[in-house]
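Revision sheet: structure tokens.
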Amino acid sequence: MKAKYLVIIGLLAATFVACSRDEKDLFDKPAAVRAREAVENAFTVLTSQEAWEMAYFPNLEADAKGYNMIVKFDKNSKVSVTAKNSLTTQNKIMTDANSTWTVKSDYGPLLSFDTYNDVFHAFSDPGVDGAGLLGDYEFYILKATSDLVLLKGKKHGAYCVMRPMKHTNLENYFANCERIQKELFSNNNIVTLVQGNAKTYLHEGANGQFASSVYGERLTRKDATYHPL
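Predicted:
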């Protein structure tokens, strides 16, 4: 009797083994190879442009705003960051080209500004309250193409959108950013955002965040939601 049971168990085990051998891999390459290729692709994309125009959102809370920065990635691991804002550079154009960067694998390609940059790390400094501006200096690379890089902060979830820099005169670039923001989002202006068939009012963006509210209705703070710009 025991011998029969052993034979049946042996046949079942052989069947499972045979079935597992017939299963196809979900991916055509091993995980280690795919991870290495993702890192290599990100490195190639980041160094393919002379400079990137970065829209950086360190904190998605209601009182937050977005910041413009110019980032240059050197193939020798040097990174240059330029910005002009009232919060971290005292409204002066400031550049720090002495820090380093790297791309490594961490559940996907991870961009790390791994040595201190006076311009960039100001947003991720802990500050006296231990939180600071809630920015990040390590970012998961969600997308990396020649015309768009999308990043998400590892710790606080800060988002960055990078596109190839098409401006050569930095003074004109930052001046144009300020001019367009004032024209579109001053407290006296209302802008209509059109997304397919949907329309939304945008207003009150002079402080770096705009309020969105129902299109076609009187503007009230009760129905407004706030977004960094």
